[in-house]
Amino acid sequence: MLRYVIRRLISLGLSLLVASALIFSVVELVPGDPASFMLGTGAQPETVAALRQQMGLDLPLPLRYLHWLGGVLTGDLGHSFTYKTPVAGMILDRMQVSLPLALMALALAVLIALPIGMFAAARRGRTGDTAVMGATQIGIALPNFWFAMLLVLLFAVNLRWLPAGGFPGWSHPGAALKSLLLPAVALALPQAAILARVLRSALVETLGQDYIRTARAKGLTAGQVLSRHALRNALIPVLTILGMQFSFLLAGAIIIENVFYLPGLGRLIFQAITQRDLIVVQSAVLVLVAAVILVTFLVDLSYALVDPRLRK
User: Fold this and answer.
1) Does residue 55 belong to any structural domain of this protein?
2) Which CATH number characterizes residue 222's domain?
3) What is the reported pTM?
């Protein structure tokens, strides 16, 4: 098990290094000069040159990458060209919204998908299975931003149970959780539909194995066979989907964040791109990629915990 973990850690470090080089290169290849964009079209050439020197844009590309990478390794992500504040602090502030939102949405997706997937698998080919699969197909097809607007109309405008948008900060935990509840539900619905279908397929395949028939022959009920034997052995594809979903929820919630006016990380990246604030874009995207790679690493470890054969 230790050798397995060490190999995965080495792979994680190499993946982060390659990802940092790709992110820096792609962002730098974007057309346009940040200094000229910030000063406007009427700026004098010497003023633009002075700003480029101040921003370090006059240095060779490899040297700029090494400076940026060295800062990342020491925890210094640089300063925003637009906001004149440390990028690390900006990302940390936005992560206080995006990370709880992603965790809430993932928890809701699991709580919805687990019983639904098990219910459909236990009634394969029956009316209940058909109804569940049809409902999950609708859940996948519905755009989450459209569902989010419906939630706002129902629970915020008509019933006035929850806020329609904004984030009051974690100094008021109750109000903060209430402000994240609607966007979390909007994000969780399509993810729960996907997860339920994957779980149902994995369980149906597992229920056809020989050891399941042996468990039934020993006198175990259908529910005991499903929960004690089939579920654990069907978790490998489910864990894969969970890892992918968390990465998507953390990085891909920009539309939902704009619908609910949440100051999350996705919205920060969108604003930085429109303002040509390259240092913010590079650092924020690298944080998201690092989170994806870390989640993938944790999913790999969970594989080994669920299936001991994978430890070898």
Assistant:
1) no
2) 1.10.3720.10
3) 0.80
